[in-house]
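User: quick one, sequence for these tokens?
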């Protein structure tokens, strides 16, 4: 994770701040109704537009940052290996790098457990039977990696069909894997059917479980940083509401210090949602 611009501890603070803000942007009460309990939960969106935006934001989180800028970008994020696992091409890769060599804490197990759970779930296949693509008169049992359908649906939700060529190719590949050969024209026709089945049905079903895993990951970052927050946080003498943070050794860059301060403030306030577990009926299908 090292770069010429930032030290390793600075880079970690920046990555964790970015992850916290993306996760916090998805698991909050702006999207979901207030929880009446924390066990056996079913999360509900206020409306279909909230579900659509949640899918878009999740797709962005599961995309590779700095794809165009690469090592020439300001943050100089490390490129994942070319033959890596599917979640290596997401922000989860950078969290795994932190777990492998933590800098702001001695032990990364609080972060690694929810990270591994989310990664394994995303990389697994789901099987959806009898998917009907009316526009091309095809019915097929579709087997697809969860991360792939989530990202395709996020792109469809965000873009007009004229910007979805790469997603059409993925749909064509998915149907071929499922035993149906179609061309690009039929792939474009299938976009709306794919979105209807996999966003409005499968993603809607999975959304509570996804939100729990994202929330668990956010709490994992919080718990990972708890000891660092305790070390760093200092109230001003004689002041009820003023405080400062004692920066860790090696955190000297002005942007990194700003990121560290914001990160510690997030830890101070905690995640928006409490820890919760969803109903088992929302984790057993697809």
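Assistant:
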């Amino acid at each position: 994770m090292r770069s010429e611009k930032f030290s390793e501890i600075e880079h970690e603070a920046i990555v964790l701040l970015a992850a916290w803000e993306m996760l916090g942007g998805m698991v909050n009460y702006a999207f979901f109704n207030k929880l009446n309990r924390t066990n056996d939960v079913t999360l509900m969106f206020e409306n279909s537009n909230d579900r659509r935006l949640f899918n878009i934001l999740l797709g962005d989180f599961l995309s590779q940052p700095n794809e165009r800028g690469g090592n020439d970008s300001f943050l100089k994020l490390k490129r994942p290996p070319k033959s890596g696992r599917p979640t290596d091409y997401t922000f989860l890769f950078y969290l795994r790098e932190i777990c492998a060599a933590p800098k702001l804490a001695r032990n990364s197990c609080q972060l690694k457990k929810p990270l591994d759970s989310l990664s394994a779930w995303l990389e697994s296949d789901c099987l959806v039977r009898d998917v009907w693509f009316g526009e091309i008169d095809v019915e097929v049992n579709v087997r697809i990696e969860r991360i792939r359908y989530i990202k395709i649906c996020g792109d469809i939700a965000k873009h007009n069909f004229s910007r979805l060529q790469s997603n059409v190719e993925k749909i064509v590949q998915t149907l071929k894997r499922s035993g149906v050969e179609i061309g690009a024209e039929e792939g474009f026709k299938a976009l709306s059917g794919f979105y209807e089945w996999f966003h409005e049905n499968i993603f809607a079903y999975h959304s509570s479980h996804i939100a729990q895993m994202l929330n668990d990951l956010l709490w994992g970052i919080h718990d990972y940083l708890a000891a660092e927050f305790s070390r760093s946080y200092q109230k001003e003498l004689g002041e009820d509401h003023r405080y400062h943070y004692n920066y860790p050794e090696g955190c000297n860059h002005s942007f990194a210090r700003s990121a560290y301060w914001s990160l510690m403030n997030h830890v101070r306030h905690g995640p928006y949602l409490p820890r919760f577990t969803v109903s088992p009926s929302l984790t057993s299908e697809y």
